[in-house]
Amino acid sequence: MKTNEFMALALDEARAAGERGEVPIGAVVVLDGTVIGRSGNRTRALNDITAHAEITAIRMACEALGQERLTGADLYVTLEPCTMCAAAISFARIRRLYYGAEDPKGGGVDNGVRFYAQPTCHHAPEVYSGINEVQAAEMLREFFRGKRE
Ligand SMILES: [Zn+2]
Contact at 8 Å (CB) between 35 and 49? Predict the structure, then answer.
């Protein structure tokens, strides 16, 4: 599968999260071309504010491999990760991070603290942004528009 196809899976997870009443963000972890973790946001379902899509997908992937790190794996997520998730991605030793839409309000990669550019960051993934960003951003806009009505 190609980059856009993995991101399409992340968008599926985002859509499913939205249907469960969660903020529609989805993430997929891929190792050697195989999906080893995939999740949408689950903060409401789990009553866990740390259950962002990236974190839950990383947990699933680590469980699948039976290890705490995901060296060589890539993570696809529909929105720029927040600072917490940017850190988790670094700690998990993710090789490449692909994300969809930028998040000027809550992002921690290319906005906010720019976690990977800090001297306290000891592993920075390669970052590719803007993948299927229009769909990712539109899904979030629709969700928050629905919330306001
Ligand atoms: Zn996050």
Answer: no
